[in-house]
Amino acid sequence: MSVLIFIDQADGQIKKSAHEVLSYGAAVAKQLNTTAEALVLGTVSDDLSTLGKYGVSKVHHATNDVFNHIDAQLFTKVIAEVAVNNNASVIVYSQNHTGKAIAGRLSAKLKAGLVSGAVALPDTSNGFVVKKSVFSAKAYANVSVNSAIKIITVNPNSFSVVTGNGVAEVNTINITDANPSVKVTAVNKVSGEISLTEAEIVVSGGRGLKGPENWGIVEDLAKTLHAATACSRPVADTNWRPHHEHVGQTGIQIAPNLYIAIGISGAIQHLAGVNRSKVIVVINKDPEAPFFKAADYGIVGDAFEVVPQLTAEIKKLKGIA
Ligand SMILES: Cc1cc2nc3c(=O)[nH]c(=O)nc-3n(C[C@H](O)[C@H](O)[C@H](O)COP(=O)(O)OP(=O)(O)OC[C@H]3O[C@@H](n4cnc5c(N)ncnc54)[C@H](O)[C@@H]3O)c2cc1C
Prior knowledge:
The protein is of the alpha/beta class. The chain has helices at 17-31, 72-85, 97-110, 216-225, 233-237, 268-274, 291-294, 303-318, and strands at 2-7, 9-10, 13-14, 35-41, 58-62, 88-94, 113-118, 129-134, 139-144, 150-154, 169-173, 201-205, 228-231, 258-262, 279-284, 297-300.
């Protein structure tokens, strides 16, 4: 019996979000009195033995370069094989794009009960019960899993990263029948931007900014804070900003440490994508804007006055000219 943690890499580097699932999986293993092992797919430049510091004793590394592109069918096949070969009773990974694409397939393949979007460690005092968020994080459900193999996908930013002094053994595996059913012929990446899903700070703008020509104040604040930029749906729908910045129920769901919402009313569909942020700061000229109810800090004021002043003060604090 073991806990297998599947972790993502991008461009050969382990994603920061992986540290959280590693820590979570290691804590589950501790609860079950067993070992935690990780699985990495594709070409990686990072030293995988260092992942031991998050509590895993072994890292299985399938090095075939075909895994450098996400292929949910192929990933499912390999994760299932490694899980069965290593007698994994719990499989853990992140509730991100890849995790969501794999979850249903892996659950069906292994006949494993799946808890998607876990926000806490399992309660093993009476069975195996996992707390997950439901209805766009408006409520929680405690889900009891009774299958022999259990799958947990962890909501980003739900669990603290825990580090120690461990060093992991790296087990390199070559999958001989890694035949993808789809072939990636080209990848066009947006370059020079901070990934919205990985960003610790996100600065987001809404219709209150009046037009795309005014986004300079959002970008300047984002640059000063080393943050990603986001926007509300109507802003993307009217092509003020690209669609990959749209957050909310029908856009990307994020959970940064800090979310700064500028000129966004705080409609329920917008909140559905951002209300798991650790700290929310709202800047809006309307004191009755619904977003203030979800905010940790609020500034009632005109964005065109407040944001440049805020940026200037942060620059001063950071010693940026
Ligand atoms: C099925 C469905 C799905 C949806 N999915 C999403 C989604 O995923 N994401 C999403 O964002 N929306 C979504 N929506 C739309 C959502 O309901 C809202 O219409 C939208 O979020 C409003 O965007 P907004 O806050 O930018 O604009 P508005 O509602 O127009 O709000 C603009 C805000 O800016 C403030 N403001 C104006 N001028 C200034 C100023 N100078 N300084 C400071 N503040 C100012 C105003 O007081 C106001 O609060 C969805 C709607 C539906 C029906």
